[in-house]
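Many introductory courses stop at the sequence. We go one step further.
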Amino acid sequence: MPRKFTLSQIPSCTGSRAFTLIELLVVIAVIALLIGILLPSLGAAREAARTTTCASGLRQLGMGLLGYANDYRGAYGGGPFDNRVKQAWGPIDEASWVASLANGGFAQPGKILCPSSPAQFNQNLILNRISDGSKTWTNPTEAERDEMIARGLNTNYTTCWYLAYTEMKRPSDPFADPMNKNDVVGPLTEKYLSAVSPSFVPLMGDGRSDAADAGEQIVYMGERLPTVKSMSDGPIKRDPVSGEYAWQDYDDLGPGHGGRSAGASRSRKKGHTRTIGNFAFADGHVGSFRDLNNDQEWSGDYIDGKFVYDELQGKVFGGILSSGKRW
């Protein structure tokens, strides 16, 4: 006969145990803790990928300039990415190193941008810099400027002074201007790389962006956006003995990647916490350097009568190319 159960013997599911509020809060706290641990790792991995992308972009541009030099008698492009008559040898869309690469089919600088930079445009594309009456080679409208950008005439890497100007014609002239084309040799050519190894001479690198400076912002497609420094200032450091223009100022290039742990910064803050910067060299390779003294720039100082770069010493050339004289 089938077994009969009394009401008290019938199995019940009402005794199954639910989560208490405390247990639920503990689970949420553990999940939040795991997310807090994982997010920095994910951010670091993302930034490492961007650093690699930037180095790859610099390598492409460097190899493009080498290709141009092979075809154009050893010249590394047409000069600075600048439309001003005082600074450049022709219109920005014809005579600059960016135009040399884009127009010649060697590379498309405007399509090879560093994703880590807060600025995706070059400062010399700001309308009142590219179009300024008699001070500029041409006077493109905003629409014409935007069409140049669409054709790849843009870069957010900063040019090293050597690529644009090579060296001073008269290094001892106290009135010579490193940013005046009449006082410099001209765009870099291979013959000026005989006294210094091309693997030592920087062509361009990760640039500095003064993102909060309204005067350094471009209006593009109706938006105000930050720009990157176009070129380093060149040999503004003079030899204390001879008085010659010699050492390069690399302040407009700078650490563009990574991040530093909490700690005291030196006095001249640049508004960022980046620690790693890339340079493209005249032999086509790309080198990576780290800001060791926490000043957010590639700085240097005179020590025992010699100018010494804090992080670049012995790795990046900073003197006079034709003589090989450095620090």
